[in-house]
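Chapter review: from sequence to fold.
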Amino acid sequence: MSSQSVISIALVEDDELLRSEVSEHLSRHGFLVSAVNSVRALDDLITCTPIDIFVIDLNLPGEDGLSLSNRLRQTLPDAGIVIMTARVTLNDRIAGYDVGGADVYLTKPVVPEELVMILRSLGRRVKPTQDDQAASLGLRQRTLLGPGLSSVLRLTMREKMFLVALVQARDNTLDSITLCDVCTGQTSEETMSKHALEELVARLRKKIRAAQVEGAEPAIKSVWGMGYQLCMEINLVP
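The token string follows.
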């Protein structure tokens, strides 16, 4: 399996032993696994690591897995979501699909080989094709570079979070309220204001425009009555 075809998995499981066993099993089968024990840890993870598929336990400390799954489906509509839980009733299953937006609902104990087959099948659907003509957003270094840009752009944390959200959104478009929530992150109790978001977008537009070739299409467009759309191709890289 080439590096470009490796499927990135985020495993959200608070049971330490099970988390370790599942992570090791999936890693042996060629998946790139990031294992965390809480929703807060996952939120930190996805700001610096591109994820193709989320494997989520429902019984988590703080925000529960069903709420997390619903939030991921809204903000990352193209991601794969697998709920893996001890909740076995029909109502729980219905909630997992209807409320959580899960692609697959698995009840514990899960057969390891079945989980691998499910993730491989989901991976064929959700793994994006890398475009050589797209710019690259380095998540750890917070850099934007590539075709159409004359220099490497250094991004602030909020600029990075803003672009990551748009890259992963359906039609690369999100409303202002969602973007304010995304850009607030975990470091502030007060949600980012719409005015602050407008200032962030203005600075980011100016930064990208200064590095673009003359005549290039604006990278970020305002969507009247809604929010913003990303109009340049960007691949997320670790």
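Two observations follow directly from the output. The domain at 135-237 is CATH 1.10.10.10 (Arc Repressor Mutant, subunit A). The radius of gyration is 19 Å.
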